Amino acid sequence: MREAFQQFPIPIKNHAAIEGAWGARRAVWTDDMAANPRVDRESFNRFPHQSDLFVPICIKERPVGGFFVIWWTERRSITDDEVRLVQGISDLAGMFLDNAQLYRAAAEANRAKDEFLATLSHELRNPLGAIVAAVGALERRGEQDEKTRRSRQIILRQSHHLAHLVDDLLDVARVTAGKITLSRQPLDLGEVATNCVRLLRDGGQGLEHRVTVRAEPVMVSADLTRLEQIVGNLLQNAVKYTPAGGSVEIDITRESRDAVLRVTDTGRGIRPEMLPRVFELFAQAEQPLDPSLGGLGVGLTLTRRLVELHGGAITAFSEGEGRGAQFSVRLPLDVTTAPPRPPSEPLAHGRPRRILIIEDSPDARESLRLLLESQGHHVSEASDGVGGVTLALAEGPDVILIDLGLPGLDGYEVARTLRGSAFGKTATLIAVTGYGQTEDRRRSSEAGFDAHLVKPVSPEALARLLATSSESDA
Length: 474
Known about the structure:
It is a single chain. With 474 residues, this protein is an alpha/beta fold. The chain folds into three domains: 2-78, Beta-Lactamase; 119-180 and 349-474, Response regulator (Rossmann fold, 3-Layer(aba) Sandwich); 184-332, Histidine kinase-like ATPase, C-terminal domain (Heat Shock Protein 90, 2-Layer Sandwich), CATH 3.30.565.10. Helix content is 45%, strand content 19%. Strand 9 (313-317) and strand 10 form a beta hairpin. It starts with a helix and ends with a helix. 33% of the residues are buried.
């Protein structure tokens, strides 16, 4: 019978009874199919039966389907209770279908958002990478006049600031989607905070503030990168909203079973009505006239979610505008006895290498070449994947830096092609790209890359990687 229904579906149009039920959004039934003039004769001849009940399924008052209850061999006097029962089932079905459509729409919107953020990240990182590499090359040109030096530092600071904003946007989306995993290790929270203050000052921030760290040894089990992100975001937030000459204090203490981080500033404070919303995505107080106090409103949201991912909690306190603010983070103490890893020794620059850059952006390619040549390396270039493979096989470089988003033959295919050659089995392949999500790193590893660097690439990180490659080849 199922096959018959699939082969000869009962029509809605030109079927008086069903069309009426469909239009009126209500049940119809008959206890005498043969005698009822509203019954479609063709359908009845195909499926002869005695009585039936039809109830439309609606989503927001819009009919999308229906339920049939059929009595094949004997007539049935259909009661009001039976009609209500099937109507209730139909209403539930409509609710389920509505929720399924909403879920599918939300999933599609999330997928589109993730794709947009990934594309935005790539498109922003490409020019940022070129800027940072060019500034790095200028840094190695020796002494310059004071105005040039200061201008160069401003460019570098603002480039890193833009990269930080891109990272925050992507991380908020990934944390929300549950796509961030932690690589935990025993860490001294005080050491991490002290290092974050040093990085803040090295980046030219907080130089006009009194920044104090008071820390006792407190161990936590945390992801180093994410813990630095938590502390760094709170520090930058405190410095940003505290006028020059103000103070920022970082206190690390042990309280019962918690490691507690408190960041206290003497800045502009938080209005009472904003305190409950301070960790909400894109939540900000009234936009200030000073543009340096603006922002995307994602930093504290990301910080809270990273803290919660570690099993902790974060709170904010302020006595009001002009009275400063305090953010407190509580993380579970590390109950293991494993000591923190000793700091690694700084790497030397290593011997000069023969390096091939495969990059379609002329500015990114030239700035990276200038940076590498300033470090003493011998550099050649290719602007697309096919040309890059040809040049690599002809010259046999030690290291190949490959952009993933190449036209024609993309970076993944370039890596696979090179790994399939005798030369490519020993060459060092490094992905240098604007794509930095977990899936991108997995794909680059599977394609045969030895390392995955996200633009803008730190000149120091690239130098360390090349030095490591040099040592492994020695």
